[in-house]
Specification:
By secondary structure, this protein is of the alpha+beta class. It has one domain (2-195): Maf protein (Alpha-Beta Complex), CATH 3.90.950. The chain has helices at residues 11-21, 47-62, 96-106, 173-179, 181-195, and strands spanning 2-6, 26-30, 65-75, 81-82, 116-126, 132-143, 159-161, 166-167. Strand 5 (116-126) and strand 6 (132-143) form a beta hairpin.
């Protein structure tokens, strides 16, 4: 079975990835599981550029198919911040509990129609032959008034989906993977991998 390395150390993300790509004929490994540690400078200006930087760098080291994603939350009222800086916003060691409360605070008094936001995910696949493909998935919602839900990670507890009446942290993992930004981007990449 061929190896596929997903360039992340995030366990929550690996769980989602394995659920979505589990039926592909690949052994799916995190960088840690593959024994790779690399400090990659993500200096791209878009989610796509950052995903490609990571995928290419790890593919050169591993010489196998590597997937990498860059994802984040865009809050329209905050000029699409935190955006590509979602993980590093307010400092890399700042807990998401603190970050989530700060966003809620920034939107204090802002009505629902101006609380629009989206999760964006770009997934890049770097092949050993040097080819790279990138696909983007998004999910639209609004910023909630409080943190709710135990599932998911990151900004999930404040990302409210009016049509579900829940935050993404209140969805089951199966529900979330069907509609999430990462799920949508990974499904598009999966289609490409099944063509080969």
């Amino acid at each position: 079975m061929e190896k596929l390395i997903f360039a992340t150390g995030n366990e929550g993300k690996m769980k989602e990835i394995r659920m979505i790509l589990g039926d592909l004929d690949y052994e799916i490994l995190s960088m840690k599981e593959a024994g790779i540690s690399a400090d990659i400078v993500e200096d791209g200006k878009t989610f796509e550029e950052n995903a490609e930087i990571k995928a290419k760098a790890i593919s050169k080291i591993a010489n196998c198919l590597v997937l990498a994603d860059d994802s984040g939350l865009e809050v329209d009222y905050m000029d699409k911040q935190p955006g590509i800086y979602s993980a590093r916003w307010m400092g890399e060691d700042t807990s998401y509990d603190v970050k989530n409360n700060k966003i809620i605070e920034n939107l204090d008094g802002v009505p629902d129609e101006n609380r629009t936001a989206r999760f964006v995910c770009a997934v890049a696949a770097a092949f050993p032959d040097g080819r790279v493909i990138t696909r983007r998935g998004t999910i639209e919602g609004i910023i909630g008034y409080e943190q709710r839900g135990e599932n998911g990670f990151g900004y999930d507890p404040i990302f409210y989906l009016p049509e579900y009446g829940k935050t993404t942290a209140e969805l089951s993992p199966e529900e979330k993977n069907k509609i999430s930004h990462r799920g949508r981007a990974l499904e598009q990449i999966k289609e490409e991998l099944l063509k080969k």
